[in-house]
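We treat protein structure as text, and this decision shapes the records that our systems exchange. This encoding replaces a full spatial description with a residue-level series of whole-number codes. Below, we set out a record of this kind in full and without editing:
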Amino acid sequence: MATKIRQSNIDPSVITGQTELTAVPANDDVQRKLLLGAPTVSSVSPTNVLSGDGTGNHTFTITGTDFDSGASANLVNDSGTTVNFDTVTRNSATQITGVIAKASLLNSGEPFDVTVTNGNGQSDTLENQINLDASPVFNTA
């Protein structure tokens, strides 16, 4: 016969001489994926958008892994201010679509980071991913 463990049976004083683990797991740690439920952001498209006359919307496709059903996304400008998408749609565990008004990105401080946050509060950020009106870079032989 199996014995059930109940909350009333748990006594934290049984474990002594150990310190609480306070280290934050790295993105590739198995513990991070299994225990914490953290997403991983691998890319965003497009990475350069044109402001034009500032009307209309930009649509971004964010890809990665472990986006849970409560996942959301936002942008963070160069000064650390959050810039929220107008709509965020979790398409699957590996893709999120974010739509934002072009006017919301004007003079907002590029390059923008892309952050995905799961419903449990765990998040991942891909830094310096989106630029506004970036000029092409030419290499001369």
